[in-house]
Amino acid sequence: GNFIPPIKSNGGNTGNVTTRVAGKSDDASDDSTKRCLEMLCGPDGELPEKLRNLEPRLIEHISNEIMDRDPNVRWDDIAGLDHAKKCVTEMVIWPLLRPDIFKGCRSPGRGLLLFGPPGTGKTMIGKAIAGEAKATFFYISASSLTSKWIGEGEKLVRALFGVASCRQPAVIFVDEIDSLLSQRKSEGEHESSRRLKTQFLIEMEGFDSGSEQILLIGATNRPQELDEAARRRLTKRLYIPLPSSEARAWIVHNLLEKDGLFKLSKDEIDTVCSWTEGVVSEIFPALLVFSSGYSGSDMKNLVKDASMGPLREALKQGIEITKLKKEDMRPVTLQDFENALQEVRPSVSPNELGSYDEWNKQFGSLS
Ligand code: ADP
C-alpha cells in the first residue's frame, strides 16, 4: 500500500530514475536518519560503539516508532491491581531510581512477565513503570517481529537493545512475548524464527549479567506457551487478573467524570459492577466458572456504548447531528448501561480464566 512508483528526477536526464520510499524523498529520509543518529551520539559527537555496526534505518525505526520518551501513564491511571503495583515498585521502580542501593544481594531481576487475560492493564503497567521511573519506554509487539520483519527480526532486536542501552534507564516492553519465546517446536517453525528467538535470548543474557539499567517486560495472554528458557529469564511473573468490583467501579466513574457525563449514584454504579461480575459456582468456585467478568478494556467499551445512549435518544427526537448542542443531551443513566450490556459482552472465556489460575499457582510470583 505504501509503494510509490519510481519518478523521474528533476534534472531532465530521462535515463536517471529516482525511487522514493513510503512517500518520503530520499533527502527527507536521509535527514531524519541523520537527526536520529545525532541524538544518540555521545558528548564527543561520536556514535556509541554498540550502534556503529547497526543499520541506520533500523536505528531510525526504533527511535521513531518503538521508543516513547513520555508514555504519559501513571499508577493513578490504573484501577486496582494493588498487588502488581506493589511488586513492581519494589522490583523495578526503586532499583531504576536508586541503582546505588540496589546492587549485590539487592540487585534486581531484569526480566518481568505480566500474564493474564487481554485488556486487563498489562501494557498500562509497562508504560506506568517507565513513567514512574523516568525511564525511556520501548514498545514492540513480538508478532510484528515475526510477521512484519521477516528475515530482519534479528537485526531489529539487536538495534532495539543497542538503542535501549544508549537510553538508560530503559524499559523494553514486548507484547505477545509468547509468539517470540514459544516452546512449540512445530514442523512449521522457520529457521528465521528460531534464530530470532536465539538472538533475543542472547541479548537478554547480555544485559542481565551487566550493570545496565534496562528492564525487559514481557506480556502475554498465553503464558502456557512460554518455554523453560523464557521462564528462567523472566524471573518475576505477575498475574494480572480481571478487575475487581471496586476497580470496575473506578473505571466507570473515572471515564464518565472525565467527559463531564457523570450523574450515576453510588448504588447505580454498584449495580453496573454486579452486572459485570463473573458467575461462579458457590460450591466449587475454582472449578466451575459459568461466565467470566468484564476486563478493564470491556468496561471501557461498555462505558463508551452507554455514553452513546443520550446521543441516540436526542437524534431520535429529530434533532440534526449538525445542530445538536451538548445541552440537548441528557446525562448517562443506568438504563443506558443496561442497553449497552446487550452490545458489549465479556471478552474472556471461563475456560481461559481457569488456565491462568493453574499457571499462576505453578509458576507465578504469588507474594
Ligand atoms: P493488556 O495489555 O492487558 O491487553 P491494556 O493495558 O492495553 O491491556 O488495556 C487496554 C485498555 O483497557 C486501556 O487502554 C484502558 O483504557 C483499559 N484498562 C484495562 N485495564 C485497566 C485498569 N486496570 N485500569 C484502567 N483502565 C484499564
What does this 3D model show about the protein?
By secondary structure, this protein is of the alpha/beta class. 46% of the residues lie in helices and 11% in strands. It is built from 15 helices and ten strands. It has helices at 26-40, 49-52, 56-66, 82-97, 122-132, 142-147, 153-166, 191-209, 228-233, 245-258, 266-275, 296-307, 309-316, 334-343, 350-363, and strands at 7-8, 17-18, 67-68, 111-115, 136-141, 170-175, 214-220, 236-239, 279-280, 289-291. A six-stranded mixed β-sheet has the order 3-5-6-7-4-8, sandwiched between helices. It has a two-stranded antiparallel sheet with strand order 1-2. A hairpin with an 8-residue loop joins β1 and β2. α12 (296-307) packs across α14. It is globular, with a radius of gyration of 24 Å. Residues 78-81, 118-124, 219, 243, 247, 251, 296-297, 300 line the site of adenosine-5'-diphosphate.
Oligomer: single chain
Q: Tell me the Rg in angstroms.
A: 24 Å
Which word captures the global form? globular
**Ends distance:** 49 Å
Structural class: alpha/beta
Annotation, overall tally of beta strands = 10
- Strand percent estimate: 5-15%
Largest sheet: 6 strands, mixed
The ordered H/E elements are EEHHHEHEHEHHEHEHEHHEEHHHH
Our count of helices gives 15
Low-confidence residue ranges: 8-25
State mean pLDDT (0 to 100 scale): 80
- Order of strands, widest sheet: 3-5-6-7-4-8
The unique ligands bound to this protein are: adenosine-5'-diphosphate
Overall helicity: 40-55%
Family: Belongs to the AAA ATPase family.
Protein name: AAA+ ATPase domain-containing protein
Keywords: ATP-binding, Nucleotide-binding
Domain AAA+ ATPase: 108-244
